[in-house]
Amino acid sequence: MTRRAGSLLVLLAALVSTFGTSEAGNPGGAPKDAVLYELMEQATFTEEGIRKATSALEGKVRLQTPLCPAGLQAYAKLAFATFDIHVQVAPRCTVVAIGNSEINVADGSGHIDGKFWVVVNSDATNLVDAQELVVMYGTFAGNVQVRKDTDALIIDILPGAEFTPIMTLPGFPLPLPAAFRGTFRLPFAFHHIAAYLSDDGTPIPVRPDERALGDATVRVEITFD
User: Fold this and answer.
1) β-strands 178-185, 188-190: how paired?
2) For residue 143, with 0-12 CB atoms within 10 Å meaning exposed, 13-18 middle and 19 or more buried, which class applies?
3) Regarding predicted confidence, which is higher, 101 or 19?
4) pTM
5) What does the alpha-carbon distance between residue 126 and residue 219 come to, in Å, rounded to a whole number?
6) Is 31:224 a contact under the CB 8 Å cutoff?
7) How many domains does the chain have?
8) Domain range spanning residue 23?
9) Helices (H), the chain
């Protein structure tokens, strides 16, 4: 092994050891309110140069935020207990989403929209696999802008994007619409290793829990305004 290659491996090992948990965190910056990962996507291009895509995402949201209001999981536990359904209360809320995007290839401008569901785990669904039981759902929409930073593509969710809760469990207060902004971090090849580009320009190796069936996923970071 050359000295240069050895130094690179030491650097990557240090980056992995200091990255911390992927849930509601941020490469090279402060923790975010929500972090989701793109589990699948299908995309097409129109003759006018518009990239249209639909993707499925899943991730975690911090407590006491618009998508994880205080008491929601505890309320769900009590509400479903009347039907003899046991709900697990977790440190963060789990959110799944189906998102659509249209991006102009020429200038990188675009729009996203879709639906989200806040879900919990229960013995009525499956306590072993991912959360499935819906306790709140709604829609989201916003504008985006693609930019290239060194070898990585970054998609910024511009200020003014909004989550709009539509339904929650009967008797639980429906949260107000919440403005948000954020970042799509597309994984890129860094010395044959999949990585995200951090806010300070440092490549951060994609962790095993940031992959779907072995493939590196797009990481979506969200901050509520």
Assistant:
1) unpaired
2) middle
3) 101
4) 0.86
5) 26
6) no
7) 1
8) 3-224
9) 3-19, 72-81
